[in-house]
Structure formats: structure tokens, C-alpha cells
Amino acid sequence: MSDTQNAGSPKQLATQEKQGIFARLALFFRQIFAELKKVQRPTQSELWDIFVTVIVFVALVMLFVGLLDAAFSRIILWVFG
């Protein structure tokens, strides 16, 4: 579908505006559940790989920030000493 088809015709938009709040909420939740059915969940192996990748990346960022902190601490101590 193109973007123009997704937007709806003026007649469809007018119909949607006339719907009550509960009808719009019901439509919203139906659309949410329809989209959730399309979600492909990772396998246990893929999940483990992603977990390890995140943990390693976080550890590397912590190491980098810690080294910067130590370097700036020494520079501040040297300057204001």
C-alpha cells in the first residue's frame, strides 16, 4: 500500500471522526494486536548472542568512561594541584 492509501480518503476520515471514543480505542487496540502477531521473536540462541553483545558493549563503554574520568582527574589534580 502506498502512503496515500494508508492515509484514507476524505470520506473515510470523516467516518473516523464521527466514531465515538470507545470505537476508536477498540480499533486502536485491534490494530495493536494485529501488529503484535507479526512480531518475530528471537530464538534462545539469538537472544543469548544479543545479551552477550550488550553486556560486552556496556563493559567497554564503562571502561572508556572510567579511563577518561581517571585521566581528567589527574589533569585537574596536576593543574590545580
Can you put this structure into words, describing what you see?
This protein has 81 residues and is mainly alpha-helical. The chain has one domain (3-80). It contains four helices and no strands. The chain has helices spanning 3-7, 10-18, 21-37, 44-80. The relative contact order is 0.05.
- The span between the termini is 67 Å
Please report which band the strand proportion falls in: under 5%, 5-15%, 15-25%, 25-35%, 35-45% or over 45%: under 5%
So what's the oligomer here?
Answer: single chain
Order of SSEs, N→C?
HHHH
What is the domain tally?
1
Mean pLDDT: 87
- Derived from helix and strand composition plus strand pairing, the structural class reads mainly alpha
Roughly how much helix do the residues carry, as a percent range? Answer: over 70%
What is the count of helical runs?
4
Q: How many β strands by DSSP?
A: 0
Q: Based on Cα principal axes, name the global outline.
A: elongated
Q: Evaluate the radius of gyration.
A: 26 Å
Residue stretches low in confidence (pLDDT < 50, at least 5 long) are none
The largest β sheet comes out as: none
Features:
81 residues; mainly alpha; 84% helix; 0% strand
What is the structure about, briefly put?
With 81 residues, the protein is mainly alpha-helical.
Task: Produce the secondary structure layout.
Layout: H1 3-7, H2 10-18, H3 21-37, H4 44-80
